[in-house]
Amino acid sequence: MGAQKKKKWSTKGSVRDKVSLAIALTPDMLAKLEADVPKYKLITTSVISDRLKVNGSLARACIKHLVEKKVIVAVSTHNMQGIYTTVIKEEPAAPAEEVAAKEEK
Predict the structure, then answer these.
(1) Measured between alpha carbons, how far is 48 from 9 in angstroms, rounded to an integer?
(2) Residue 41 main-chain phi, psi, to 5 deg
(3) Within 13 Å and on the Cβ side, how many CA atoms surround 93?
(4) Percent helix, strand, coil in the chain (nearest 5)?
(5) What is the mean pLDDT of each run of 10 residues along the chain (105 residues)?
């Protein structure tokens, strides 16, 4: 019984490449932020960071910017994670006369 090599713990799996994230907003990125993000159903720091390739602190600043513009609204806020969604614009109620005219037809 000779000395055997110690078995390696894991040799499977691939190494994930490190993504370079932006640390400042450019005018193009700001336009993309204001156009695309309000269309997302779920808006979090992680979602913005992943889709726009920005770091987390910049993603939080972007969320604050959109909340101030009243484009998105908070669903739940926590000290670690904030969950936001798109502001739903309600249709103005039709006057009663127009509704009655449609029912008569």
Answers:
(1) 36
(2) -75, -45
(3) 3
(4) 40, 15, 45
(5) 72 75 92 93 94 94 94 90 88 60 59
